[in-house]
Specification:
Order of helices and strands: HEEEHHEHHHHHHHHHEE
Number of helices: 12
Low-confidence stretches: 259-300
Largest sheet: 4 strands, mixed
Number of strands: 6
Radius of gyration: 24 Å
Strand order of the largest sheet: 3-2-1-4
Shape: elongated
Strand content: 5-15%
Distance between the termini: 69 Å
């Protein structure tokens, strides 16, 4: 196309659909998220070619304009795109324009939208440790009077927390632009979307230590329930700095009592004098209903 006649999305789709080498067309980005387009939105299109096929469409490789971005890719490479990688969420929520594989393109996208169990468990452990690390640094920096560092670490912790929560649900984390869109349509099980977003907003903006600790109490329960107690226990006494303190810690202990078997064949779990818990050789095994710690009380 000439500079006077730029290649449009609809013109390219018509061209590609007529080419037998094309087995799939997949639209990602804001055009694939209902209600998210603006006057600045372009069309981001994957053009999936049959493996080994030849086509004149390869002349558009790398095509990028304010109206149309093209990724021309063979089927084998498309199967692994974003697995893992930053592109995974974009493809998980992409819209299918053309599928010549009798649903094969749809199945590939569905696989990208769902982490397998081993991958999810491994990722959860890594994101949980990263979240705890940033939270610990934020609270410690706040204690020591480093307010900017505390806020920056708090903002970092929110990123790792979101990665963790989506991995617990075996989903890729959405880009920040689509976080509210995603949660409005596909809420995280056991989490109140409004409360979670409000907490993320406040912690990112202010580094509110009291809120960070209350949120961590909720995350700790969910993480232990999912089998990640060893990651948390590796932090040892440093967990005390992350958990709600004093009266808030007592409230945490009372609530977690409803989640824990205080006596079982393999462990003995009892409240200690600080309001926390000590446990036997298997550590804490948290079961039961979700706990919400987004109240506005202060720690005393």
């Amino acid at each position: 196309m000439s500079a006077q006649q730029p290649l449009t999305y609809h013109a390219f789709v018509e061209l590609a659909a007529a080419d037998p080498a094309v087995v799939g067309l997949v639209l990602k980005g804001s055009r694939a998220h209902d209600g998210m387009t603006t006057e600045h939105s372009d069309h981001d299109l994957y053009v999936v070619l049959a493996d080994g096929a030849t086509t004149d469409l390869t002349r558009f490789t790398g095509h990028r304009t304010p109206q149309l971005d093209l990724v021309i890719i063979p089927l084998a490479a498309f199967r692994t795109a974003g697995m893992p990688g930053f592109e995974r969420y974009a493809l998980a929520r992409a819209a299918i324009v053309l599928d010549r594989l009798d649903g094969g393109i749809a199945r590939i996208l569905a696989a990208k939208a769902r982490l397998d169990a081993d991958e999810a468990f491994r990722n959860c452990g890594e994101w949980l440790d990263a979240y705890a690390n940033s939270l610990y640094r934020s609270v410690k920096n706040d204690r020591d009077g480093h307010s900017l560092a505390a806020r920056l670490d708090a903002a970092d912790s929110v990123r790792f927390l979101l990665e963790l929560l989506f991995a617990l649900d075996r989903r890729p984390r959405p880009y920040n632009r689509y976080l509210e869109w995603e949660l409005a349509r596909f809420p995280l099980p056991g989490w109140d979307t409004g409360m979670l977003l409000a907490a993320a907003d406040r912690i990112s903006a202010t580094g509110d230590v009291s809120l960070q600790r209350r949120l961590f109490a909720r995350v700790e329960a969910a993480a232990r329930r999912a089998g990640h107690g060893a990651v948390l226990d590796a932090w040892g006494e440093d967990l005390d700095l992350m958990r709600p303190h004093r009266r808030s810690r007592a409230r945490w202990a009372r609530t977690v009592q409803h989640l824990l078997p205080l006596e079982c064949e393999h462990c003995r779990v009892q409240p200690d004098r600080t309001g926390g818990f000590r446990s036997g050789r298997l550590g804490l095994s948290i079961i039961g209903r979700p706990v919400y710690f987004f109240g506005h009380g202060t720690e005393g």
